[in-house]
Design brief:
By secondary structure, the chain is α/β, with parallel strands linked by helices. The chain folds into 3 domains: 1-44, no CATH class; 45-252, P-loop containing nucleotide triphosphate hydrolases (Rossmann fold), CATH 3.40.50.300; 265-312, no CATH class. 45% of the residues lie in helices and 12% in strands. The chain has a 7-stranded parallel beta sheet, with helices on both faces. The two termini are 32 Å apart.
Length: 317
C-alpha cells in the first residue's frame, strides 16, 4: 500500500474530513486504489446506524434529513449524509439540489454531506452508495442518512443498503396517496407524513394504515406512522423514537443480522457481475468484436439473446 493511500486510510479512521472526501472520490471515480482502500477500512465498519429516507419528489426529504441531522447533533452524535441527486444530462454529475437545501449544516464539523449522482443507476441510489456508507461507518459516524433521488414503484433499492427505511409522504398531492404502491409499502419500516400542518394530514395517516393492512411483508413489525413538519423541526423526536424502537426490534428478532447478510450478498453478487463483464469484454471477446455484435443486433441480423449466448459460449468455466 502506497504512503498516500495509507495516509487516506488513517485519515478516514480518525475522521478527518479531507481524507473522507479523498476516499469517496476514489470510490466514485473507480480508481484502482479504491479496492485496497475499502479492504483496509472494512474491519472498522458495523457500528453506524444506517437510515434510508425515500419517497416521492417534493415530499420534503432533504428538509427532513437536515432536521434529523440537527436532532442527532444535539445528542452529540456525528452524522454522515449521502444525498443521491439526479444526474446532470450535461456533465454527468450530481445536480446538487439537496446540498443547496442543507447549507446551514456545512459549518458543523460533526456533519459530513456528500452528494452523489445516480448516473442512470436504477433504484434511486448511486452505484457506489454502499461503499460510501462503509467509509462513513469506518470513520466513526454514529448515524448515516441515505437520501434517495425520489422513488417510484420499482425504485426500492435503498432497502438493500440501510437498516431502517423511512418512507416520506405528504398530504394533498392528489390521487389520494399516489406514492403508495406495492413496492413502497413493502419497504417502509417507518412512514413519515411530512408537512403535516397541511390540510389532509390525518386522512393520509388513515390511508396509509389501510394500505398497510394489505401488506404481509413486515412480519411482526407494524410500521408506525409519524407526522412531522420538518421545516419547523416538529415531530422529529417522535420520529427518532420510532427509529430506535425499530432498531431494537431488528436486534431482538434477529432481523438485523438477516438484513446485514442480504446487504453483503447483494454487494458480492453486484461485484461478481461487474468483474465478469470486465473480464469478458476485452478478454474473452475484444472490444471491437463486442461493438460489432451490438451493431449486428441493431441491424437485426441477430438478437440480444443469441448475442449474449455467443459471448458466453466463449467463456471457459
Amino acid at each position: 500500500m502506497s504512503d498516500e493511500l495509507a495516509r487516506i486510510v488513517d485519515g478516514v479512521a480518525t475522521g478527518r474530513s479531507r481524507a473522507l472526501g479523498q476516499a469517496i472520490t476514489l470510490v466514485e471515480s473507480h480508481d484502482q486504489r479504491a479496492v485496497r482502500l475499502l479492504a483496509e477500512l472494512y474491519p472498522l465498519t458495523g457500528r453506524a446506524r444506517i437510515l434510508g429516507i425515500t419517497g416521492s419528489p417534493g415530499a420534503g426529504k432533504s428538509t427532513l434529513v437536515a432536521a434529523m441531522a440537527k436532532h442527532y447533533r444535539a445528542q452529540g452524535k456525528r452524522v454522515g449524509i449521502i444525498a443521491v441527486d439526479p444526474t446532470s444530462p450535461f456533465t454527468g454529475g450530481a445536480i446538487l439540489g439537496d446540498r443547496i437545501r442543507m447549507t446551514d449544516l456545512y459549518t458543523d464539523r460533526g456533519v459530513f454531506i456528500r452528494s452523489m449522482a445516480t448516473r442512470g443507476f436504477l433504484g434511486g441510489l448511486a452505484k457506489a452508495t454502499n461503499d460510501v456508507v462503509d467509509i462513513f461507518d469506518a470513520a466513526g459516524f454514529d448515524v448515516v442518512l441515505v437520501e434517495t433521488v425520489g422513488v417510484g414503484q420499482d425504485e426500492v433499492e435503498v432497502v438493500r443498503t440501510v437498516q431502517t427505511n423511512l418512507v416520506v409522504l405528504v398530504p394533498g398531492m392528489g390521487d389520494d396517496i399516489q406514492a403508495i404502491k406495492a413496492g413502497i409499502m413493502e419497504i417502509g419500516d417507518v412512514f413519515v407524513v411530512n408537512k403535516a400542518d397541511r390540510p389532509g394530514a390525518d386522512k393520509t395517516v388513515t390511508e396509509v394504515t389501510m394500505m398497510m393492512s394489505l401488506v404481509e411483508e413486515h412480519g411482526d413489525w407494524i410500521p408506525p406512522i409519524v407526522k412531522t413538519v420538518a421545516s419547523k423541526t416538529q415531530g422529529i423526536p417522535d420520529l427518532d423514537a420510532a427509529v430506535v424502537k425499530h432498531h431494537d426490534y431488528l436486534t431482538a428478532s434477529g432481523e438485523l443480522d438477516r438484513r446485514n447478510r442480504d446487504r453483503v450478498r447483494i454487494r458480492i453478487e453486484t461485484q461478481l457481475k461487474e468483474s465478469f463483464m470486465e473480464r469478458v469484454i476485452g478478454g474473452t471477446i475484444t472490444r471491437e468484436a463486442y461493438e460489432q455484435l451490438l451493431e449486428d443486433v441493431l441491424r437485426k441480423t441477430t438478437n440480444p439473446h443469441d448475442a449474449a449466448e455467443s459471448v458466453l459460449s466463449r467463456v471457459t468455466f
